[in-house]
Amino acid sequence: MKLQITLSLAIALAAFGIPGGLAHSASPESTTELRIATLAPSGSSWMKIFNAWNLTVQKETNNALRMRFYAGGSQGDERDFVRKMRAGQVDGAALTNIGLGQLVRPILVLSVPGVFSEYDELDRVRTELGQRFEEMFEAEGYKLLGWGDVGKTRLFSTERIERPSDLKKQRPWAWKDDLIFTEFLKVVGANPVRLGVPEVYPALQTGMVDTLPASALAAVSLQWYTRLKYMAAKNSGIIVGAAIMRKDKFDALTDEQQKVLVETGARAHAALNKSIRRDDEKAYQTVLERGLTPVDTSEHDAEWKEAGKQVRERLAGRVYPETLLDEVLAAAGKQE
Q: Do the beta carbons of residue 230 and residue 159 sit within 8 Å?
């Protein structure tokens, strides 16, 4: 296991084009440490890249700057990360759309059904509107260090789910702060079981929850798939994420440290997205091999699309401006 982790870290370091050794010019007293919270489990694809990012930052600043990642939800759930950032207890966090939406509500436009289902669509949206979103975060006092994927969204369940109305007979999990999936369940007439991420696996064990949205990679990393039997063959979207830090903490860094953090962050997240996209597909194949049955929902595509359209329309004006939704759809190459 130790050899496997060492090799994984070496591969991640190679993605940055740096050797494995570190410079140690700065004394511990002069080293600035950035405290970053994440739900990503230790040893996961995310943490391998984050650890490599930290080593790169240390090397390129002669150890004057380093990042300390609190992995596996050791700092709580994403709502706790947001609260602790605001209180100054952590300096930043790697968040999914759920946490990002608590900082900048309109960012949730990237998570509504029907916006995009393929990575090239997501990439176009980030290219065309990325600067706009970064400015939104800065207006709220946060610096966006890089966009990170979490994988393609699929429904996992203990019973077959072929059409939206099937959800009414299930006990679907909705993240406590997930406005999008909660709204989707309202549209189709289903009742969510609202829990934090650390509560999901125990809820699957007891039967409190029997259905959930997740990427295959997340379902494997968190071991959720071991309590489920079916998953949608077709994904309904892509789970977006990003690394964020308090802007006052970023502004307190030297110009050179800011430059290193931004440039290495861009390289880290480019490597992360490449890794996650590959590993999510591998995880999908893994859960198939482990016995989960893929469910073809294409016969009921019209019902899924109509439910998604209702969600987009109901949230427009409440969660995000309708004009922003139109711009995102246009950038993704979608027609309303």
A: yes
Tokens 């079916």 belong to residue:
230
> Under a CB-based contact definition with an 8 Å cutoff, are residues 325 and 316 in contact?
yes
CB contact set of 118 (below 8 Å; sequence gap of 6+): 238
3-class SS at 57? helix
User: Which residue type occupies 120?
Assistant: D
Residue 83: domain span: 30-332
In a domain? residue 11: no
**Apex CA 100: angle with CA 230 and CA 223, to 5°?**
30
Asked if 267 contacts 146 with a C-beta cutoff of 8 angstroms, the reply is: no
Q: Are 129 and 331 in contact (CB under 8 A)?
A: yes
- Asked if 264 and 53 touch (Cβ cutoff 8 Å), the reply is yes
Q: Is residue 13 part of a domain?
A: no
DSSP β-ladder status, 32-38 and 211-214: unpaired
What secondary structure letter does DSSP report for 172?
Answer: B
Q: What distance in Å separates the CA atoms of residue 25 and residue 106, rounded to the nearest whole number?
A: 43
Tell me the sheet residues that pair with 133: none
Give the three-class secondary structure for 23: coil
> Global pTM?
0.88
Cα–Cα distance, 73 to 206 (Å, whole number)? 22
Per-residue model confidence as pLDDT tens digits over 74-118: 999 999 999 999 999 999 999 999 999 999 999 999 999 999 999
What CATH number does residue 308 fall under?
3.40.190.170
**What six digits make up the tokens of 96?**
């999914």
* Other CB atoms within 10 Å distance of the CB of residue 49: 29
* C-alpha gyration radius of the chain: 20
pLDDT digits (tens, 9 = 90+) for 317-328: 999 999 999 999
> How many H helices and E strands in the chain?
12, 10
Structurally, how many domains does the chain consist of? 1
Rounded (10°) angle between helices 255-289 and 2-16: 130
Extract the tokens encoding 189. 């007439």
pLDDT digits (tens, 9 = 90+) for 124-145: 999 999 999 999 999 999 999 9
The reported pLDDT for the residue numbered 4 is 38
What value does the mean pLDDT of the chain take?
Answer: 91
